[in-house]
TrEMBL record, chain A:
Belongs to the binding-protein-dependent transport system permease family. SUPFAM superfamilies: MetI-like. One of its GO terms (biological process) is transmembrane transport. GO terms for cellular component: plasma membrane. It comes from Glycomyces sambucus. Coiled coil: none annotated. This is N-acetylglucosamine transport system permease protein. Keywords: Cell membrane, Membrane, Transmembrane, Transmembrane helix, Transport. Residues 67-292 form the ABC transmembrane type-1 domain.
UniProtKB/TrEMBL annotation, chain B:
It comes from Glycomyces sambucus. Pfam families: SBP_bac_8. It is found in: Cell envelope. This is N-acetylglucosamine transport system substrate-binding protein. Transmembrane segments: none annotated. Keywords: Signal, Transport. The lineage of its organism: Bacteria, Bacillati, Actinomycetota, Actinomycetes, Glycomycetales. NCBIfam families: chitin_NgcE. Gene3D superfamilies: Periplasmic binding protein-like II (3.40.190.10).
Amino acid sequence: MRHGKYRFLIGALAPPLLLYGVFVVSPYAQAFYLALTDWDGLSAEAGLVGLQNFADLWSDPLFLAALRNNGLMLVVVPTATIALALFFAACLTLGGGMRRRGRGVHGSGLYRIVYFFPQLLSVAILGVLFQFVYTPGNGLLNGLLGAVGLDGLQRSWLADPATALPAVTAVMVWSAVGFYVVLFTAAMESVPTDVVEAATLDGAGRFTVFRRITLPLVWDSVQVAYVYLGILALDGFALVQIMSVGPGGPDNATEVIGLTLYRAAFTYGEFGYASAMGVTLFFITLTLTALAMRATKRERVELA
Amino acid sequence: MAGAAAVLSGCVTAGGDDPAEQATGAVTDDNPLGVPEGADLEVVMFDGGYGQEYTRHAVTLYEERHPDATVTHEGLQKVGEVLQPRFVSGEPPDVVDNSGAGRLDIAALAAAGQLTDLADLLDAPSLDDPAVTVGDLLLPGVVEDGTLDGTVSFLNYSYVVWGIWYSRSLFDQHGWTLPATWDDMLALCEEIKGAGIAPWTWQGKYPEYMMDPLQSLAAKAGGLDLVYAIDNLAPDAWRQEGVLAAADAIHRLVAGGHILEGSEGLSHTEAQNAWCSGQAAFIPCGSWIEGEQQGVTPEGFDMAMAAVPALTAADALPDGAVQGASSESFLVPAQALNPRGGLDYLRCLFSGEVARGFAESAKAMPVVKGATDGLDLTSGLASVAAALETAGDNVFGYKYRTWYPELAVEVDTATGELLAGRADPEQWADRIQAAADAVAADDSIAKYER
């Protein structure tokens, strides 16, 4: 009987593992190998160059600019998104008036759906839409500023090195918030009402309930959100490619690692060098994920 | 060094073994390129702004000449993504139109030995007249454009001319005349501004659009020596007097407030639409703009291209010299199954009959001489043909953009900064010179010379 069980297990596991090996593990392995070569992407042969590609990275101004911009996005995107999403989710679940306590603001069901809309749009469409928002002169944002008398703030948002990266980052946050509102709302709704009610009876205000009870109980979701958003912030390629001047400009203000990598591979034909960037990005992502998991680790609250 | 590299190199993929047998047929008067009897042909082309009509037209001619052959013709948007694996594994098609944003790096293809030498095609008699070779039918510069390291590796089909575009009706209405020198241009800009119209706009998101008038001014002032110095990565090439003067001339548009506000943040469509709707008088562009703006150009707009004005009265190149280059690169892969057929297909493509059809259907200049003669051209295309006529042999072009894309990226970034008013001509030149020096010093980048 035991023997049969293992045969069944192996039989069930082999096909997915094989697919995973062929389509996920082997490309990774190949990228690691290519990172050590000078492959041009077109010939069948590639010469080994050792760690030269990795050494070159640290004197490549574009890569360094990309690293800096991704670093900034890594700080801003998860923090802003999680803060906003927690705020909205709390409004949807805790924010109701005295009579709706614990059920969220009026019409919260509708808001929940509306917040999710950006998630349904592809990144490419988002990029194009926000390009119109940021259009200099008669764009939506400048028009809005003009309408409320803030003409002094009007500018070419994507063409000014000071505002280009914030403009792109804002789109990332805008598009991500909705999903995490839904995620956090679901988590908050699973917080037992008796705990909340007990706290309320003890005289806790809504903010205290949120800080002392809700947040600790949804911390697992926040942790997951942080990792996902961190990975999102390390990418940003599609938005930058579509929206930014250059792309990657002005003056490399919106250069991201994905774009530097793409250009190295497909414009310069330096696939080996590009693979080295990919491998570096892989390790950065891995390290950050591990750090984030560790730094946000808290004691688990058992509710049963 | 080379030996060590060969020892260290390994196979990237399982492919790349011995190429399949490449058949050739008997060379006769009727079959000057020796296409093997009944061999199939596969054509993969970029399906872009010029459409597929002309490449299909050439398929028809090819099929008439080789009735036994099955011809496959496919149009793609992303040529590179689809063909890269086929090149690597040694199974490319017989003819490729390597164009569009997703094209393969043609210099890298050539360096990897993936391209057939097109010399036989150039020497072959043309389809129109057996006494004239295919090479003799081509406009000046086309063979040079396709030559890498002394080998003709590809031939471009469309002839693009760069200049500054304006609306004839708008200019007639205000009584403005085209400036002959840059000083005239600046004076005219003041006049245009007086009429409540921005003198210039440009496709700010893609700074290379403004680099074209800038480098045209530089070439006119300094002549071909200046152009070659830049392309050959000569020391201080970007700090030559003519280059600095040209950058200063363009910078004067910024300093004088002659550019439509916010242009530095506009995409090419937004800027071109602003121009078409009369918000600005001039826009720099290549000759494709008429086709691109077809749907939005108002009735009676009468767009026309003018050559970039002379920088000074003492320019090295004569008046009317224009920047021109060919594009839409057709090539025959070295590992194709039927390379002789590929060459013969190109012989059909570069015939007067197909070229005339191209001018009509794609509204662009083909590289075949005299192809637009007697055709009823649209206002823009007619102005381009006239500009080419005036220029005669004085058509110049830069190569650094194709040879050294690393440098082009930095040139565009610096030009964007110049046009946004955040860098002056000196800083602009210093920045590009530093990038050019870095490319020159980088042994891993293949160098070219002209």
